[in-house]
Specification:
heterotrimer, A alpha/beta (425), B mainly alpha (301), C mainly alpha (308), A: 425 residues, alpha/beta, D-Maltodextrin-Binding Protein, domain 2, 2 domains, five-stranded mixed β-sheet, four-stranded mixed β-sheet, 54% helix, B: 301 residues, mainly alpha, MetI-like fold, 14 helices, 0% strand
Chain lengths: 425, 301, 308
């Protein structure tokens, strides 16, 4: 009863404020259609849970999942907007939120956010992304940590190596692993995964450089000696990989590591979800540590999935958007979704010690808090959390070419990186 | 006619018996080697449909199934219970969409192609070459380029997110192909036939029904096979212009190529791929003979 | 009498209508074709001159986007790949297709079986084709692994991970997919060749390969043109095959223009630059088709002059 009354009241408010179709509102039945790219496995199951919660709250749930590449999701979104029927809710992230907000097609969530007190519970670093112009336009679903280093417990034990903490230690460890005839870094080359590794390297070598180069696209930083040094480290690391990196998926790289064929695997925490499903055990098959940093302390490269709501004419869908936003931000959903996805909740007030979070996930939350306290938290360039896609795309082209082509020197690469970004300005 | 003349000509009949035997040997060896290379991918997919996932993940895609662990259950899963986009009904529910899209679009584009080909080859008019040129250029437009304009047009027509919209898009794009095929085929029908009919007082439609249509089956088979397989296998438009329960089967199996962050059920996906490929495969196996025969009478001259 | 006049008018009207029937029937196609081919192309060209980013936008900005496009290494590699891939793919497919057609033309047993085997790849979608061939070509999962398992440990077959050779993997896969189609058309052509021609050549003592090369194949050249046109459109539109096979890698070495167009327009929110790339694809097409059109035009004029 309470829910129905509340729903009706809110719908009335929205109608008076926005659309002025008071007559239709009395019967508003919350509906939604969420567009996302999680078509399979644990992620699809997590979304299905979202649907169940939506229906349990009295809504009509529909979803459009577009498997495979993100560009298909974005292409569909653009086509729908061009066709004049923007979807009610879409999985979008990073700077795209601000870009879409600027087109004037997104809905404003301020009322719901104020009512639910989002400002108090959402991690600070996410606020600027979710509120590009000061108003809420996106609801964050999770926080992924990008800078994890997974290692094969078997290889580390055999060779008596402790998980390296700095890049020098990492290189020394790799020399040892290679001398023992094993692969040091398991990697599957693709623009995003090459860039994930490079995120770790630049961040671990010089955090200010990371901020200037990858969060602000500063040309001098991109061309700097620090960047040359970072590319030199990346070149070294390519030498620690095997010849099969092209055409290998990241899951295959994970399997290689956890089966003891390769020592290290640099990847985000979604690895945990896949590892759980594939039956690998934390602490037995693999260890998770922060990717090396030369400056000591705790570091955290952040990635976050979020949902953006587009303006709707149908009051049923408007109502559905409010309900969906509330559910996404509910602690219950944040737990379910993030246990399945390997990430940690976007709300900082959720207790991770219960509900099935792994040690690695709990460690992630602790590191996040420590990183915030130390002022070392950054957003991930590789995972589209910092600069506009056109700059990110230009950067990733250079990085992935550098990994693929030995003949490019670190100096050339740094220049190409700056040139490629400048060209798009 | 062509076939009977051809009977007199046995390429291998030249030279002595020994030479004929070695030539035969070379011919069959080459045929077999190519056949091996051509069938390998299909065999590999088939083998992976019966292997358990951990076996595939650990020993790679190219390995024989283990007699103890192999199972047909992945086929059942792919057909009826596998979860795609939050609905756990396998690929079976997309079959209907694909058929509802492919059959009308194939028929419509073929009918228009026949008429256009007939007009452009037998009812010549000023600038008909230009018209033919513009229509044929349609086969070259990259899909990625046409996505946004199509989205706009479908939105204006109120066909967004409908199978009817997909039928419309595929019909328009298909006309380019069918017109090209049919026009080149009808050109080889002697103009005298048409002239005689016109002198007898036959009009446009009468000539079409009485002369053109009876001569058309070969090219009809070619265009139908071509259009059916092309439209059935297309995934980009299906993915972008429809959603949820309206999507064709290819959108459901795009993930097969994917690089998503979720785990993959390669065996179920392999079975789904075979299922999705069955209608076009069937058409080729059943119609292959006519395909070649149709082209024999069509494309030449 | 008014009624007679009306009927006469009707007849005249009907006759005029009958004369116009072909054009009238053609109108729907014409409208659609002009809208689709001309309209969409012009719209794309116009977008390429605009400031469109996330959504189409009408502000004019000139040829900036072309300059940016050509400044990017990925695009220059992709454009070059289009020509390299296109040439090798079309020629390779024609060659293998001809070979298979000639082999099947040798009155072989089980002709239907061979034909079906060579033709079936065309029924398999590009996504699946690319994925399976990636497994076969990849050193960790495919031929190289199989050779290692068989004991030949030094065997190396890693074209797909070699940036200089990966494009040829795409070419080979493309040929696998399309050569059956070429085979079918060329076989059809061979079957229509006049047997007397061959007999005459045989009497002159020419060998079989020579007869094919000098007598049979030249008579069916229009078929080669027809096949080439169909292959050319596959080559220009190549997208899913590369995405599934190499994802454009290693690095950007196997990127093709259609991938760049899609990425720019949809992934990166640079619709104007993506449109510029699409226009450049059309330019590439013109580079191939215009000389051909001129040549055909010149030839038919010459023939007409000859006959006249």
């Amino acid at each position: 009863m309470k829910l129905t009354l509340k729903t009706t009241l809110r719908a009335t408010g929205a109608a008076i404020a926005g659309i002025g179709m008071t007559a239709a509102v009395a019967q508003a039945e919350p509906k939604t259609n969420m567009m996302h790219q999680w078509a399979q496995g644990a992620e699809a199951a997590a979304i299905a849970k979202l649907g169940e919660m939506f229906e349990a709250a009295g809504g009509t749930w529909e979803q459009t999942s577009i498997s495979g590449h993100t560009s298909n999701t974005l292409a569909k979104l653009r086509s729908d907007v061009v066709a004049g029927n923007a979807p009610a809710a879409v999985q979008l992230k990073g700077p795209e939120i601000a870009e879409w907000n600027a087109t004037g097609t997104t809905a404003n969530l301020d009322a719901t956010a104020a009512e639910q007190g989002w400002d108090d519970v959402v991690a600070d670093e996410l606020l600027s992304v979710m509120k590009p112009t000061g108003s809420w336009v996106a609801a964050p679903m999770n926080i992924h940590r990008v800078n994890w280093m997974y290692s094969s417990k078997k290889i580390l034990d055999e060779l008596g190596i402790a998980p390296p903490k700095t890049w020098d230690e990492f290189n020394a460890a790799c020399d040892k692993v290679q001398a023992a005839g094993k692969i040091c870094i398991a990697h599957g080359a693709a623009d995003w995964s090459d860039s994930t590794t490079f995120d770790d390297v630049v961040y671990g070598m010089d955090i200010d450089l990371y901020r200037k180069a990858f969060q602000e696209a500063d040309l001098d930083a991109l061309r700097s000696d620090g960047m040359v040094a970072a590319f030199a480290q990346l070149r070294k690391m390519v030498g620690y990989m095997d010849d099969g990196i092209n055409g290998r998926s990241w899951e295959q790289s994970m399997t290689m590591t956890f089966d003891g064929e390769a020592a290290f695997f640099l990847m985000g925490d979604w690895t945990v979800a896949s590892a759980n499903l594939a039956g690998y055990t934390e602490g037995e098959d693999y260890l998770c540590n922060q990717a090396p940093v030369n400056w000591g302390g705790n570091g955290f490269i952040l990635n976050s999935d979020s949902v953006v709501f587009f303006k709707q004419k149908d009051p049923d869908f408007v109502e559905g958007q409010k309900m969906l936003a509330e559910i996404i931000m509910s602690p219950e959903f944040q737990v379910t979704f993030n246990v399945a996805k390997g990430s940690i909740p976007a709300r900082t007030d959720v207790d991770l010690s219960t509900g099935g979070f792994t040690q690695c996930q709990q460690q992630g939350l602790e590191d996040l808090k420590a990183s915030v306290a130390e002022g070392t938290l950054v957003r991930s360039m590789a995972h589209n959390m910092t600069v506009l896609q056109k700059y990110r795309g230009a950067m990733m082209e250079v990085i992935t070419e550098f990994v693929a082509d030995d003949s490019i020197s670190p100096e050339e690469a740094a220049n190409q990186l700056a040139d490629a970004v400048e060209l798009q300005m | 006619m062509a076939e009977t003349m051809h009977q007199d000509f046995d390429p291998l009949a030249t030279g002595g018996t020994r030479r004929r035997l070695t030539s035969k040997g070379i011919v069959y060896t080459l045929l077999a080697v190519f056949a091996l290379v051509y069938t390998a991918p299909l065999v590999i997919i088939l083998l992976n449909t019966v292997r358990p996932l951990d076996d595939i993940v650990r020993t790679g895609f190219i390995a024989l199934p283990d007699a103890e662990t192999m199972s047909l259950k992945y086929w059942a899963e792919a057909w009826g219970t596998f979860c795609i986009g939050g609905t756990c009904e396998g690929v079976s529910r997309f079959y209907k969409n694909s058929l509802m899209m492919t059959i009308p679009a194939t028929i419509l584009s073929t009918v228009f192609g026949l008429l256009n080909g007939y007009i452009l080859s037998k009812w010549r008019f000023r600038y008909d070459g230009w018209v033919f040129g513009v229509i044929t250029l349609g086969v070259f437009l990259p899909q990625q380029m046409t996505l946004l304009p199509w989205a706009f047009v479908l939105g204006k027509l109120g066909l967004s997110n409908t199978i009817a919209g997909l039928v419309f898009v595929h019909t328009v794009q298909g006309i380019s192909f069918t017109t090209l095929f049919c026009r080149n085929y009808f050109v080889s029908i002697p103009d005298d036939l048409i002239k005689a009919a016109r002198i007898d007082g036959a009009g446009f439609w009468r000539i079409f029904y009485k002369i053109i249509l009876p001569l058309s089956p070969p090219i009809l088979i070619v265009t139908v096979i071509w259009q059916f397989t092309g439209i059935w296998n297309e995934f980009l438009f299906g993915t972008i212009f429809t959603s949820g329960a309206n999507q064709p089967i290819t959108s459901a199996i795009v993930a097969f190529s994917g690089s998503g962050t979720g785990e993959r059920h390669y065996n179920v996906e392999a079975a789904a791929v075979i299922m999705a490929a069955l209608p076009p495969l069937f058409i080729y196996v059943a119609g292959g003979k006519y395909f070649v025969r149709g082209l024999t009478q069509g494309a030449v001259k | 009498m008014p009624s007679l006049q009306t009927s006469r008018q009707t007849t005249r009207w009907q006759r005029r209508l009958a004369d116009l029937t072909p054009q009238l029937v053609l109108i729907p196609t014409l409208v659609v074709a002009i809208g689709y081919v001309v309209g969409f192309s012009l719209w794309t060209f116009w977008l390429s001159l605009s400031t469109s980013t996330l959504l189409p936008d009408a502000t004019f900005s000139g040829f900036d986007q072309y300059a940016r496009l050509w400044g990017s290494k990925r695009w220059t590699v992709a454009y070059q790949n289009l020509f390299v891939f296109g040439t090798l793919y079309v020629l390779g497919t024609l060659f293998i297709g001809t070979l298979l057609a000639v082999l099947i033309d040798q009155r072989v047993k089980f002709e239907a079986l061979w034909r079906t085997i060579y033709l079936y790849p065309l029924a398999i979608s590009f996504i699946v084709t690319g994925t399976v061939w990636r497994w076969i070509f990849h050193p960790n999962t495919g031929v190289e692994l199989a050779l290692h398992d068989m004991g030949w440990l030094s065997a190396q077959f890693d074209w797909i991970t070699d940036r200089d050779l990966a494009l040829y993997v795409v070419v080979i896969t493309g040929i696998w997919h399309a050569s059956g189609f070429a085979m079918a058309l060329i076989l059809a052509g061979l079957r229509s060749v006049d047997g007397d021609l061959v007999k005459a050549a045989q009497i002159d003592g020419a060998s079989m390969p020579r007869i094919y090369r000098k007598v049979v194949l030249p008579t069916i050249w229009p078929i080669f043109i027809a096949v080439a046109v169909v292959l050319l459109q596959f080559a220009i539109k190549t997208y899913d095959l590369v995405v599934a096979l190499t994802q454009g890698g290693p690095g950007v070495s196997t990127t093709v223009p259609a991938i760049v167009v899609y990425d720019l327009m949809f992934q990166r929110g640079q619709i104007a630059q993506g449109a510029a790339a699409a226009v450049m694809i059309l330019v590439a097409l013109a580079i191939v088709l215009v000389p051909y059109a001129l040549w055909t035009g010149w030839k038919s004029r010459k023939e007409a002059a000859h006959h006249g």
